[in-house]
Write a structure and sequence with these properties.
Radius of gyration: 24 Å
Order of helices and strands: HHHHHHHHHHHHHHHHHH
Strand content: under 5%
InterPro entries: MFS (IPR011701), MFS_trans_sf (IPR036259), MFS_Transporters (IPR050171)
Keywords: Cell membrane, Membrane, Transmembrane, Transmembrane helix, Transport
Protein name: MFS transporter
Number of domains: 2
Subcellular location: Cell membrane
Main location: membrane
CATH architecture of the largest domain: Up-down Bundle
CATH class of the largest domain: Mainly Alpha
Shape: globular
Distance between the termini: 75 Å
């Protein structure tokens, strides 16, 4: 039976890297929230690129960013911690600078900017997890990783709200958002650098128990774990967790003909639940072995997708609210997964191979993120065309007749006043 921990805010801040590092996380996430959701819009409206070219450049940037992960893993295994975190943020500063310098109509400078942004976005999770794993141990590490995720989601949400409020300013506002993102990344990098945390990977640790085969002097002298089953499972988990972001809005609007407000409500509920429940649920689950909790996350996600299948078969007036209700269950599965998966990797990996293990885990995450949009959109059936005589066709014909003065109650053509 694993040792449980308690929620102590000050202890969580210390276990997460200290107050300055917590501020760095918040500032970095705030900057990411300002730009990441609107990067496609920036390419289309500010740089006047076509939507396919912009999307392709962004995809290439994400995939190419994964290529750097083996080097990041080796760097972490040499003991670097806060330096790698700071560099991942500085790389994104370069990406934002290139974005601001890209002339309108030029796709390759934009692709280069997204490449640097992709490198920083892919390197940061592994570097952050390695830093927390160096400061905290055992189940306190799980809670610290969960606290960092909750803080980051809160700052991402605030950044996205601020950016949404500024979109009325057009291209000038988007350029200002990009500049603010660069400044946020620069400030976050300076704060992370000031932590000055370095690890001694050769030192064995026996503090990472919990029934998962973690830690210890023997593990420190052994080879790095392959974790093939865990990495394969992570690809599936990430793929499934991308469904609410990609497939649900598509199904709600094109299949269920629901208002886009339902999609927005689902995203807001997801953010609020993650911010408020990530740490309590992770602490609650700390009484069970991590492998068991990760399997439980799969069970909860499976139940949620069966619920989605049932909800979409309901009558139009009930389908959208039912999908929104089931999405809460899906979010709970996401919370259980996120509070356990990375913590399990840090518990399984010996200190001398922690960086490589986290890099492999991030590669599996990136693979799931990269393939899910194409697969999900391919599997989603096209919007059905209403049959002849459907009320939508009748309504459209009636509107045409009324505009022409030929509808019911008319006595022939007449002038229609606008």
């Amino acid at each position: 039976m694993a040792t449980t921990t308690k929620i102590r805010p000050r202890a969580l801040v210390r276990a997460s890297g200290g107050p300055r590092y917590a501020v760095a996380l918040a500032v970095d996430a705030l900057g990411t929230g300002l730009l990441r959701p609107f990067l496609l819009l920036y390419g289309v409206t500010v740089l006047r690129l076509s939507a396919p070219a912009t999307g392709t450049a962004m995809t290439i940037g994400v995939v190419a960013g994964l290529v750097c992960m083996p080097a990041v893993g080796r760097w972490l295994d040499r003991g670097a911690r806060s330096t790698v975190v700071a560099v991942s943020m500085l790389v994104r500063v370069v990406g934002v600078a290139l974005l601001l310098a890209t002339p309108a109509g030029h796709v390759w400078p934009f692709a280069t900017a997204t490449l640097f942004l992709g490198i920083g976005n892919q390197a940061w999770p592994a570097a952050h997890a390695a830093l927390v794993a160096t400061v905290a141990h055992g189940r306190e590490r799980d809670a610290a990783l969960a606290a960092g995720r909750a803080l980051r989601n809160a700052a991402l949400g605030i950044g996205a709200l601020l950016a949404t409020a500024c979109l009325a300013g057009g291209t000038t506002a988007l350029r200002s958002l990009a500049a603010a993102t660069g400044l946020a990344y620069l400030a976050a990098a300076a704060l992370a650098w000031s932590v000055h945390l370095h690890a001694r990977p050769a030192a064995a640790s026996a503090e990472d128990g919990g029934g998962d085969g973690a830690g210890g002097a023997d593990a420190a002298d052994g080879p790095a774990p392959r974790m093939r089953a865990l990495l394969a499972a992570n690809v599936i988990y990430v793929f499934c967790l991308n469904i609410p972001e990609i497939a649900l809005p598509l199904v709600l609007v094109t299949q269920l003909h629901a208002s886009p407000v339902w999609s927005a409500a689902i995203f807001v509920a997801n953010t609020v639940l993650v911010v408020t429940l990530q740490v309590p649920v992770t602490v609650l689950m700390s009484r069970f072995p991590r492998r068991t909790v990760l399997a439980l996350a799969g069970v909860v996600l499976t139940a949620s997708y069966l619920g989605f299948l049932a909800a979409t078969s309901l009558a139009p007036g009930w389908a959208a609210p039912a999908v929104a209700a089931v999405s809460v269950v899906c979010t709970l599965g996401e919370i259980i997964y996120a509070g356990t998966a990375t913590a399990l990797v840090t518990a399984l990996a010996p200190p001398h191979a922690l960086g490589r293990a986290l890099a492999r885990f991030q590669l599996s995450t990136g693979l799931g993120l990269a393939v899910s949009p194409a697969v999900i959109t391919t599997l989603t059936p096209p919007r059905p065309r209403p049959p002849l005589g459907h009320p939508r066709h009748c309504d459209a014909a009636l509107r045409v007749c009324r505009r022409r003065g030929e509808g019911p109650g008319s006595l022939g053509p007449r002038r229609v006043l606008s």
